[in-house]
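Section: Multi-chain targets

For targets with more than one molecule, the full set of components is provided together so that the structure can be written out for the assembly as a whole rather than chain by chain. Components appear in the order listed by the source. The example entry contains two components.
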Amino acid sequence: MSMLKIENLEAAINGKQILKGINLEVNAGEVHAIMGPNGSGKSTMSNVLVGHPAYEVTGGKATFKGKDLLAMSAEERSHEGLFMSFQYPVEIPGVSMTNFMRTAINEKRKYLGLPPMAPTDFLKFIKEKRDMVKLDAKFMNRSVNEGFSGGEKKRNEIFQMAMLEPSLSILDETDSGLDIDALRIVADGVNRLKSPETSVIVITHYQRLLDYIKPDIVHVLYQGRIIKTAGPELALELEERGYDWVIKEYEDSLK
Amino acid sequence: MKEAQSYIDLFSKNRALVERGSGGVMNTLRDAALDSLVQYGLPHNKLEEYLHTDVSKWFEPDWGMNLARIDMPVDMAETFKCNVPNLSTQLYFLANDTFVCSETASKNTLPDGVFAGSLRDAALNRPQLVEPFYGKLADMAKPGIAAINTLFVQDGFLLYVPDGVTIEKPLQLVTLLSSKVDLMVNRRILVVLGRNAQAKLLVCDHALAANNYLTTQVIEVFAGQDSSFEYYDLEETHNANMRASELYISQSAGSKVAVDSLTLHNGQTRNTACVSFDGRGAELSLNGVAITDKSQHVDNMTFVDHRLPDCTSSELFKYVLDDRSTGSFAGKVLVREGAQNTSSQQTNRNICLTREARMFTQPQLEIYADDVKCSHGATVGQLDEKALFYMRQRGIPMDEARMMLMLAFVGEVIGKVELEPLRDRLYRLVEKRFRGQLTQCEGCRACR
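Its structure, encoded as tokens over all components, is:
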């Protein structure tokens, strides 16, 4: 079953064209890795998919579980089951984690026509998901991400992913700034949430994270286009040889 | 100056009437007030301290004043039948400028020696409680509201707490503007706390009828040695209301004073707060919130005078301005020569929700002592776009996300309110305000 289908997607920010025709299909149960050198458009792609208002879609289309993704607001995309783990999770002083999560969960339930979650159920649910990513209870009374260490912020992202139970998760450079233990906890959380009904897009510079979250398919993004798609062995090869050979291969193919 | 002249004439013609409706020291000060008004006029925007609020314009209309003290009945029962639980207070009313001897007020139980009631009555019958204090802090040697207020004021509220007495239950003074016609009201509040005395006073300022109102208000607070006083000033009036308020506080050694001033709904407001440390080791927490929309205007001017060593002051003012509303904050902190070991912190943060909203902020720090710890900071900005998007990605709709951020923003000030039930109620009120459900004064229905 198709989870996400992107066709000829083009996008710009501040008038500058970044995505120049992306084609990508992700099926339910699959893990895709998107790799590429700096400035190739990886973060732009994830931001466009989750509806960041700063990016302008200039062409193409994206279908998420059969619905027109680009016609939806950012919050609707979330309710429909799209999640992004932020490269730089945002601090929100004065908004407690509990209040934040309760509002997010109940807004989604409202969208799905469900009543708000009972407070006791909500607390149980929080505990279960916290345990999964080893996030201490004390964080729940703190303001969202405020004063969290780099590793805590990323664990908090996976905690939120666990709470919201998305169908498609985009992990935008979730490995950046993580030490090996934190990386393992985060990857472990992602793997436990994997199911035949859910999909993951892992955006990363390095092979390292892919040792823990095994991709089914690896893409190379370069200058706003996907220039190579292969199996998991591609990530290893990129780690060893860098991007130059892929870029050269692509440029030769254009001649 | 022409605005002042008409009030000078009005007073000269009606002096007997004004004085008949009042008494004691309140009348003795009229001459000084008249001199001051003649000399300085009404404060206008050519003056640095009134740059963003031309208060003199508010006095241009030919306001009616109830100098003959005609009874203007306000149906308290009708106004206050709603009762939000958890905040239990001793309740008092000022209808326009008149203290209301209501049934509720007479039921209040206060420790021996405490006086809470009509300032006029006290000036007439208990002058020893009023005379040593009345007009001693209000500064009439400069342009301001104190002069015109002192000239016309006839009644108000006195809270007198003798040495060593603690009033556990907070006192709540509800000031109501209610009349069939446009009205100018002059109101006075005097608070005297003896040595080691403790009290909490919440003043809820409301405008009931949809008329135009102009209120002048002077509050004088004497915080005795090692006393503790919490003062909450909650304005919830309407768009046709103008309020010029001056708060003066004198803190004796070791006293602790907390002031929280909240403008939730208003028309045009100017609040001046002047605090003087007249003893060592005193502490002040001075905070404010203003939430404005349409063409509302809120101007807070504070002056904290560190005259003596070892005193601590902290100030936090936050504004959220929507539509075409405007705000102003000017905070002056003066650390005088010899006021060593002063600690002073001042913060003013503001959010303009639209391009048309305007905020003017001016922190001023003057330090003439060398062993002090002082800081100030001011910012004007918008809601954090990154936070908004982060919240939306998690499924929180735009409007709700904005609400949460605004609540969190002013929540920092409300969190400082020590009276827990009041704090909870303020969160709810602020949320209602942001949701646009508090578009006009609801009497004290929203507040009680």
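Chain A touches chain B through 31 residues (CB under 8 Å).
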